[in-house]
Amino acid sequence: MSISAAQVKELREKTGAGMMDCKKALSENDGDMEAAIDWLRAKGISKADKKSGRTAAEGLVGIAEDGTSAIVVEVNSETDFVARNADFQNLVSQIAKTGLTTGGTVEEVGGAPYPGSGKNVTDTLTDAIATIGENMTLRRLAKLSVEQGVVATYMHNAVAENLGKLGVLVALKSTGNAEALKAIGRQIAMHVAATNPLAITSGDVDPVIADRERKVFTEQARESGKPENIIEKMVEGRMRKFYEEVALLSQAFVINPDVTVGEALKAAEKEIGGDVTVTAFARFQLGEGVEKEANDFAAEVAAVAKA
């Protein structure tokens, strides 16, 4: 039978399910609204979509690697309790491994086949939401690759292999020894985890950020009452210090603060047996930029009572 747009709209409003799922539910049940609602509930679709509006700021960061490529993903859940769940941990690991076979965008990973399920990653996540009972999202990912060299990885305070709350990738281009390259790469990844640099070199720093800092330094210097030519020199000095602090290669190396990261890398080239260039890095800390809901206890109890 023909299903009208009005019927689809009504079912969507009642269940919170997606338009295509609502249309399929109605078609499967000859337009019977109550039967369609039950069909969605049985499939777990209604339950999952109702939870999709809830803030997911916990979860896990996962890493997968194969030498010249690596990927870091962030999969969010609503509570840390779920992040400690073995099924959820396996889900994040499999999503990361699947991501290595794609071009490295959220859309491509979401549409990629999930191992052993007969479904793609997005649909598998939807099923997991219904099963585990919390909203979960593949929030972001970064994939780095080099033609020659390694992509080194580091997971800070790992809760399981390549799973934790702070993961780092560092891409190193070199024709030298891969094992020695991986060793210095891991140290640099640890450094990135600790210092959170903005760019590889000072020239790579976002001009918008640099201009903002320059304006702040200029206003601060003008409060000293000194002449403009002196103020200009003060600002340039502060900008040099700013670049040293935020550009990876000019930062003091956390493993050995007597040298910069760039100097440590140069010193390692002898053992590696070739020039080394950092081509990219990615640092994912769980929940960065997610605005968490701040419900008070009374509101939480009221919400449960209404559920």
Give your account of this protein's structure.
- This protein has 307 residues and is of the alpha+beta class.
- Among the domains are: 5-51, Helicase, Ruva Protein, domain 3 (Orthogonal Bundle), CATH 1.10.8.10; 58-199 and 277-285, Tetrahydropterin Synthase, Chain A (2-Layer Sandwich).
- It is built from 13 helices and seven strands.
- The protein has helices at 5-15, 19-28, 33-43, 45-51, 80-83, 86-99, 106-111, 121-132, 178-195, 207-222, 228-246, 261-272, 297-306; strands spanning 58-65, 69-77, 137-145, 149-156, 163-164, 166-173, 277-285.
- It has a four-stranded antiparallel beta sheet. Strands 4-6-7 form a three-stranded antiparallel beta sheet, covered by helices on one side.
- A hairpin with a 3-residue loop joins strand 1 and strand 2 (69-77).
- The protein is globular, with a radius of gyration of 25 Å.
- The two termini are 34 Å apart.
- 36% of the residues are buried.
Number of helices: 13
Residue ranges: pLDDT <50 for 5 or more in a row?
48-53, 293-297, 299-307
The radius of gyration computed from the alpha-carbon positions, rounded to a whole number of angstroms, is 25 Å
Question: The CATH topology of the domain at 58-199 and 277-285 is what?
Answer: Tetrahydropterin Synthase, Chain A
Percent helix, as a range, is 40-55%
State the strand order across the main sheet: 3-2-1-5
Q: What is the ordering of alpha helices and beta strands?
A: HHHHEEHHHHEEEEHHHHEH
Shape estimate: globular
Q: What fraction of the residues are assigned to beta strands by DSSP?
A: 15-25%
The CATH superfamily of the domain at 58-199 and 277-285 turns out to be Elongation factor Ts, dimerisation domain
Q: What is the architecture of the domain at 58-199 and 277-285 at the second tier of CATH?
A: 2-Layer Sandwich
Distance between the termini: 34 Å
Biggest β-sheet description: 4 strands, antiparallel
Whole-number mean pLDDT? 88
Count of DSSP strands:
7
